[in-house]
Structures are given as structure tokens and as C-alpha cells.
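Give me the fold.
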Amino acid sequence: MSGGADSVALLVLMSELQKEYGFEAVVLHFDHGIRKESAEDAQFVRRLAERFGLEFRTSRVKVVQKKGESIEMAARRERLAFFASCMKSLGLDCIATGHHMNDVAETFLMRLKRASGAEGLAGLKPVSFVDEIVFIRPLLNVSGADLRSFLMSRGVAWREDSTNSDISILRNKVRHVILPFLEKELDPKIVEHICRSVGYLRETASGIMRRVESVEDRSSVSNIPEDQAVKNYSLKVCEAVGYELTPIEIGRLPACAWFDAKSTKGRTLEVRRWREGDWMKPCGFPHRKKLQDIFVTAKTPQNIRKSLPIVADADTGEVLWIPGYRVSDTVKVSSKTASSIKFCLMPE
């Protein structure tokens, strides 16, 4: 927990449920050390855990960015490593987070801006998995306002992140400017209605993922869904070691690519068609390139450009692989002995 209203409300609720149902709960706090008041946040969370009689674990790490990482990506990587360590050392069944209805609406609008597919727009899920970490989000149907009212009724304080008011950050702009405008000018219940639509998209995305084999299964071939790719293609995903060099010819199938296993942790991947404005940083290139420019240089026919499925990061919009072309530099396999994930696209 961070100490914000949503995570504090989750702590209070978990404390009450623990007494009723007898399960064990541990409060986890990760201090990124990025904000000057982060040490105060850690002490606040520690005192709150003690107040409610809950075990407390924390970790403070100096976040160091790797090549191609933003500070947010680096912090997320370190945070996930802390969670994974706690899952193992404490024998945890899952990790609960305080994401709520407003987070769902914000994430939807941010991904809509990038023209994400169904999997991306489905956004935050009640249950999700990142390797050995199991995340649950029990508050997705509760608004942030209701959580703050709940805390005030219990006389429980919370911390405010000083960066939350900075509207140069996209999520904050969506939260403080765009959503209030939509509530005023379009629909007072826009957050609730977006969340309802996201629920429908979640069902669609769930059906999609049943047809494209998960990396956990990593064995058989599944059809790529019609709303994300053309008919008559199939995708196979499996564990591998290292990588192989393949001829570069966009659209030539079957086509295979190898992603570094560690680089895909925490990412939401989607399979979809190319869109105007799509970009990638091809392996071996120092800068980003628009797919339009890649296609022109490669003299790729229009029918292949329009129909060929690509693999992209649903959160950032970055294209990670064009079948028959290079993978993104951000997921390249570092050596012939590194753990990798192999993707193969082939015609049916």
C-alpha cells in the first residue's frame, strides 16, 4: 500500500474481513525513493499497520533505469521484484491492490487515446497474473469518492501524493481535467458507465485470450480473433532459449520472433492490425521509426500492410514485432543462452 486513500481503505476493509474470516494479511509497502516525502509515506503506512494489528513489510530501493526504460518502468520492475520476493518468503496466496472505479475509467481513456484493442481497453482486471505474482483488485466497483467517505466515517486519515496535482502527467490530466469535463458536459455518471463498458470488453478480451494460447500453456496453436487480426492466421507461443536469425521480408509466413522473457514481465500484449501513427524502435536502430516509414522502405504492398497482424504493448502502444521484420529493441534477447519467448505466426 502507498498510503493514499484507496490503499488505506483497502487496509481497513482487509483488517475487518480478517477478523471475520480468520485469514492472514500482511501490509506491503515499496519505497521507490523518488519523491522527497517517500520516507514519511513509509512511516505513515508502518504506523497504520501497527494500529490495525497487521504485519508490515517494506523495501526501499534506489531505482536505476536500464537502457530504454522510463523511470516509471524501472520503478515498476523493482516493485514487482519486491512483490515476487514477498509472495515467496511469506507464502502469500495473492496481493490485493486498492485500484477502484476511477482508476478503471482513467486507464480506459488513456488507452483509448492510443487506439488499443479489446485486451488493452479491458484494462484493470479483478484478477491478473505477472509470473508467480497473483494480483486481486476487490475495489474495482467502488468509486474513489465512496472510499474517501468511508475513511472519513471511520476517522482514518490518508496521505496525498504531491505529484497527483501535476496535470502535465497524463493520468492526472485525465483525472482532474478530462473526466470532470465529461461528467459536467456529457454524463454525470460517465465513470460508472465507462466501467460498465469495460466489463463488457473484459468478457470479450477473456474470449480472445482463450483463443490465443497463454504463455503459461505455451504449447498449441490458436486462431487470432477476428476483431484484432485478419482471418486465417494462427499464433503459437512457447518458451525458448536464445533466438534464431531469420530472413527479413515483411509478411512472409510463417514468421517467428523471440522476445526476452524478462522484458515481457508486467506487459499487456495485444495482437492487432497496423494503425496510422504506430511506431517501434527496431532492434539495432538508435531511434524510433514509424511503421509507415518501415513499410515504404521495405516496399511492403498495401494489402499486406492492412492485413498483417502485429504484436504491440497495450499500455504504451509500442509495436514489438512486425512478422517478417525485426523485434523491438526493448524486447530483444540478450544472448543465445537467455530465456526467451518464441512467437510464430503462420497461415492456416
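The CA atoms of residues 210 and 333 lie 27 Å apart.
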